[in-house]
Amino acid sequence: MTDLPELDSQTYDADAAPSVPGGTDPYRTERALFIGDTGAFPFEIRQALVRLLRGPYIDGTVDAALWTTIQTHRASLQQYLSEIFLLLTLDTDRKIAMLTPAQIDAVHTQPIVARKPLRREETLLALRLRVLLDRHAGTGNDVTITRAGAREILAEHRQPGTVDDKRLDEATDSSLARLLALKLLLPTELGGEYRVSNALALALPFDSIDQIPAYLAALDNGSDEDIFEPGTGYDATQTPLEENL
User: Fold this and answer.
1) Regarding beta strands 193-196 and 185-187, do their DSSP bridges make them parallel or antiparallel, or are they unpaired?
2) 234: confidence class by pLDDT, cuts 50, 70, 90
3) Is 184 helix (H, G, I), strand (E, B) or coil?
4) Alpha-carbon distances of 42 from 68, 70, 86, 108, 239, rounded to whole Å
5) Bridge partners for 59 per DSSP
6) What is the DSSP string of 67-98?
7) Rounded distance, CA 46 to CA 49, Å?
8) pLDDT tens sequence across 128-177
9) Which of 80, 96, 219, 240 makes an SS bond possible with 56, Cβ 3.0 to 4.6 Å?
10) Which of 9, 58, 99, 31 lies closest to 198, judged by CA?
11) Where are the alpha helices (DSSP H) in the chain?
């Protein structure tokens, strides 16, 4: 994943808040939100943290106010998230924010939530949709896919003699359901038609979409095992990457 440019931000500095002798901090006391509240962040930053931790991502085109808060307080948010081994990733062009586990090798340290990879058909569909998303970038038009279109994509990649029509239908429905659960696909007003989320570009990061055909070819020669681990964030209670469909 390429490094993102630093954003100009006004960050909240808890250490700079006024305090008085004896350990009483009038700044924190005044802004306590509940009995026993020892938090230092203002209300809007706390809300942003909760939304980020719930996952799977923040879409700034849907919630402009939240997106502005995340951009403005990016440094403070990352400082907190670093304490729990998470990274805040922003795509300023697509207005997408998501959390990803930090890559660490510390002894006895594991990601907060184990992430379950996508299965073969789910990966095939997601990769093809990733190509469509990039091809429509900058046009201002939503990228959509129908169930019939998804089935056609999986039919192109089915291995001869291994997938009959019934299993293809099942794979189509389960793949769509999984991507919907991850919010990489979003429902539309039309039944059987879905909008491809801009978050897919961060969930399946490639330096260039020209790399995807080779990856697809490798999948066509592979097995049905779990093969791709998308980076679609973190859920504090139940990760959206778990197979809970």
Assistant:
1) antiparallel
2) very low
3) coil
4) 15, 13, 21, 33, 26
5) 96
6) HHHHHHTHHHHHHHHHTTTEEEEEETTTTEEE
7) 5
8) 898 888 888 777 788 899 999 999 999 888 776 666 888 899 999 999 99
9) 240
10) 58
11) 26-30, 43-54, 64-72, 74-82, 120-135, 147-156, 165-181, 200-203, 212-220
**DSSP secondary structure letter of residue 166:** H
Predicted TM-score (pTM) of this structure? 0.64
Rounded to an integer, what distance in angstroms lies between the CA atom of residue 71 and that of residue 19?
A: 28
State both tokens at 133: 């998303």
Find tokens 């996508």 and name the residue. 118
> Considering its fold, how many domains does the chain have in total?
2
The verdict on residue 200 lying in a domain is: yes
**Amino acid (one-letter) located at 31:** R
Same domain for 184 and 152 = yes
Query: Could you tell me the sign of the dihedral formed by the alpha carbons of 169, 174, 180, 185, in that order?
Result: negative
Token code pair at residue 87: 């990274």
Task: CATH number of the domain at 153, please.
Answer: 1.10.10.10
**Which structural domain range is residue 141 located in?**
120-220
Query: Can you tell me the distance from the alpha carbon of 19 to that of 21, in angstroms, rounded to the nearest whole number?
Result: 7
Q: Which of 43, 13, 46 is nearest to 30 (CA)?
A: 43
In 3D, which of 196, 193, 171, 201 has the Cα closest to residue 184? 196
Q: Which of 8, 118, 120 is nearest to 74 (CA)?
A: 8
Return the ∠ at Cα 61 (arms to 56 and 63), rounded to 5°: 70
Asked whether residue 225 is assigned to any structural domain, the reply reads: no
144 and 215 both lie in a single domain:
yes
